Amino acid sequence: MAATLGTVTSILQLVDTALTARDYIQDFRHAPEERRTLLSEMEHLRPLLKELHDRIQSNQPSGQSSSYSSSIPQQMEKPLSDFQKTMEGFQQSLKPAGTLKDFSRRMKWPLWGKKESKEYLGKFEQFKSLLNGWLLLDIWDSGQQQRSDHQDILKSVEDAADEQRQAHDRMLSLAILFKSVAY
């Protein structure tokens, strides 16, 4: 669980770094459509990753073993690790090659060709689909757990009501018995 949380945190940092770099690109308006789509897709990934991060973190009390009922985080480790490598490669392509002039030239978007942009876009879209699926399954798991908890509570209330009825019936029987003994 901690490894999954660390991977998600790392991916979030990589996405934030790439989006920050995008904010500094002066010629972003002139970027080819594929590259704008690529960064837009990354922007859409960020809230999903943040939600996943928050869910994993909120279900992992510090100093205790995880109370997370879902097996989803364990199933996500490999795809998350793969996506982390993709993001690290993407971030490497944004790093300056040497001088500020080289960096400036790279930030004017001769970063990749159309093929590389589509490749990254495909990976981002695939991961976003996986992430949406995981979050939906997590919601479903939570709903099932709440349903089970609700049924357990109802059963407890019914059992308590039965015990109270039985106690009431015993009290009535005793009252009738005492009444008949008293006369």
Characterization of the model:
This protein is an all-alpha fold. About 3% of the residues have low confidence. It has five helices and no strands. Helices cover 81% and strands 0% of the residues. It has one domain.
Summary tags:
about 180 residues; mainly alpha; 5 helices; about 80% helix; about 0% strand; Fungal N-terminal domain-containing protein
Describe the secondary-structure layout.
Blueprint: H1 2-24, H2 33-58, H3 72-94, H4 100-106, H5 114-182
Helix pairs in contact: 1-2, 1-3, 2-5, 3-5
Protein name: Fungal N-terminal domain-containing protein
Biased composition (Low complexity): 57-75
Region (Disordered): 57-76
Brief sketch in words of this structure:
The protein is mostly helical.
